[in-house]
Automatic annotation (TrEMBL):
Lineage: Eukaryota, Fungi, Dikarya, Basidiomycota, Agaricomycotina
SUPFAM superfamilies according to UniProt: Pectin lyase-like
Protein family membership: Belongs to the glycosyl hydrolase 28 family.
Protein name (Swiss-Prot/TrEMBL): Glycosyl hydrolase 28 family protein
Organism: Lyophyllum shimeji (Hon-shimeji)
Alphabetical keyword list: Cell wall biogenesis/degradation, Glycoprotein, Glycosidase, Hydrolase, Secreted, Signal
């Protein structure tokens, strides 16, 4: 067994009878690193976490003690390879808002930052249903007071340049901002994931999306439970071959495609998405699609528009709906700078081949669908399957503009989708 410098130094001091606060530490046995939290239970454990990833992040195993680890500084653990990470305890992020706003690592697309940049190949990150990321988010909800996309408010966990990997049994509570972002990744499975960002004050847990994807292919989300203040799972620029299965969404907006088309002149696409066996409890929609208008107003993250590209072949089926607060299906191409209206017919972003249904359950309103496609790029091939099985409060309104044609069908035969990868 090797002792690493921090621990060794402290042990020597201890032998000399000098009492100091022991920082988080790592013991390495063969290729297995075990991470211990600081003895005082408050000091920054991030240096020990970094050390464990440096020592065992390639062809190794990183085990955390079943304890709370305080993360007071940003983490960048990238270039990992063939590693198993075992988290039976909890990461708790620090409360120095000034520090986090100044030091987040860039998402590298939209002007946002993360508190932990993570990536590599052939990674298994397992939490056994208890391993927890606690973003100490209440502090951020109170500080932000509902302001959208406050600069420097960090995404909890960003998975970047990651292939052939699996994240399983992890819990994310009180995220600072979006819980996760996945970017430039392929063949990643995230299963048995619990997310809950709930504000206990009058300030909303705004922008606490479950996960946002960018430039990623063959990503599977299975068995997610999401409670939060915004989109649950949101697929953005160049997300392809995405599968969402067996998940439960409490409140929030439901499955989101977009916003997309935010960057003037950029071409982006979303293609081949299936979401199946999803339970929506009091969400605003079952699933919806939103693009920016064709006219740029302001700059991202809160402004933008004028992007183009397409979203196609997207299927939402076998949803169970309870008390949706708006409608089952929704499309808007009117997203613009906060407060700006109009321009709904200007987007060139093309939406087509979208299927909602079969679905069962109820909407608490009289609207089944509201779809506002752009006059400059009307939406062909919108299909509702078995909407007659969905109960409403009275009328069964379907409103649409620039949608042609709409098909309504009864149940079609299909088999459950398989995921794309053989993950570790
Ligand atoms: C918070 O972080 C800022 C910027 O890094 C630093 O100057 C300040 O001393 C920190 N405050 C506390 C209480 O640690
Ligand atoms: C992931 O796969 C892509 C394309 O298949 C490749 O370009 C990239 O280098 C891979 N990244 C890692 C971290 O293995
Ligand atoms: C980008 O974010 C930084 C802080 O993270 C902020 O200072 C800057 O104004 C932002 N830029 C834009 C264009 O929003
Ligand atoms: C989410 O967290 C809140 C408060 O922390 C709790 O009351 C609620 O039951 C949780 N929701 C779910 C679905 O776990
Ligand atoms: C999921 O949607 C529900 C309903 O709006 C919302 O309460 C919850 O906050 C969303 N979860 C996340 C993580 O956005
Ligand atoms: C998205 O993918 C398409 C097709 O590969 C590519 O042409 C486009 O440049 C990508 N968009 C961005 C913003 O990288
Ligand atoms: C649509 O996407 C699904 C996966 O979500 C795929 O199985 C199917 O082949 C695609 N259809 C077309 C026409 O591309
Ligand atoms: C979508 O799925 C079809 C059928 O499997 C495939 O041919 C096409 O390449 C996929 N599109 C993307 C962007 O992967
Ligand atoms: C749905 O709304 C109805 C009417 O308000 C209410 O009686 C019922 O308990 C709600 N169901 C759930 C699961 O919240
Ligand atoms: C509409 O769907 C049909 C059948 O899937 C397909 O043949 C046709 O190309 C689609 N049209 C457009 C404009 O996407
Ligand atoms: C479903 O799978 C079964 C067994 O593999 C196959 O016989 C059947 O044709 C499939 N049905 C569809 C609609 O793909």
């Amino acid at each position: 067994m090797k002792l690493f410098p921090g621990l060794f130094f402290v042990s020597c001091l201890a032998l000399l009878g000098i009492r100091i606060v022991r920082a988080g530490s790592v013991t390495k046995l063969g290729s297995i690193c075990t991470v211990h939290p600081s003895a005082d239970g408050v000091s920054d454990d991030a240096p020990a976490i970094r050390q464990a990833f440096d020592l065992c992040g390639r062809d190794g195993i990183i085990k955390f003690d079943p304890a709370t680890f305080h993360v007071e500084s940003v983490l960048q653990t990238t270039g990992l390879r063939n590693v198993i990470i075992d988290l039976p305890g909890k990461f708790l992020w620090g409360t120095n808002i000034t520090y986090w706003r100044a030091n987040g690592l860039p998402l590298g697309y939209i002007n946002m930052t993360t508190a932990w940049m993570f990536g590599g190949d052939n990674i298994l990150f397992q939490g056994h249903g208890v391993g927890t990321f606690d973003g100490n988010g209440q502090l951020w909800y109170d500080f932000t007071q509902g302001v959208s996309n406050l600069p420097g408010r960090p995404i909890s966990f960003m998975i970047r340049n990651t292939n052939n990997s699996r994240f399983t049994g992890l819990r994310f509570v009180q995220s600072q901002f979006w819980t996760m972002a996945i970017k430039n990744s392929e063949d990643v499975l995230l299963d048995s994931i619990y997310i809950n960002s709930t504000s206990s004050s009058s300030a909303p847990a705004r922008n606490t999306d479950g996960v946002d994807t960018f430039f990623s292919n063959r990503i599977t989300f299975r068995k997610w439970t999401v409670t939060g203040g915004d989109d649950n799972i949101s697929l953005k620029a160049n997300s392809t071959n995405i599968l969402i299965q067996d998940s439960v969404f409490h409140g929030g907006l439901g499955v989101a495609i977009g916003s997309i088309g935010q960057y003037s002149g950029l071409y982006e696409r979303i293609e081949n998405v299936t979401a199946e066996r999803v339970v929506c409890l009091g969400t605003r929609y079952a699933a919806y699609i939103k693009t920016w208008t064709g006219i740029q107003q302001g700059f991202p993250p809160n402004g933008g528009g004028g992007g183009f590209g397409y979203a196609r072949n997207i299927t939402f089926r076998d949803f169970t709906l309870t008390n949706l607060t708006n409608s089952v299906a929704h499309i808007t191409q009117c997203t613009s700078f906060s407060g700006a209206t109009g321009g709904c017919d200007t987007s060139l972003f093309q939406i087509s081949d979208i299927t909602w249904g079969p679905m069962t359950g109820n909407v608490a309103t009289g609207t089944l669908a509201s779809m506002r496609c752009s006059g400059s790029a009307p939406c062909p091939n919108i299909t509702f399957v078995d909407f007659d099985k969905i109960a409403t409060a009275g009328s069964r309104k379907i409103s649409c503009s620039n949608v042609r044609p709409i098909f309504t069908k009864s149940r079609r035969e299909y088999n459950s989708s398989k995921d794309f990868q053989s993950s570790p």
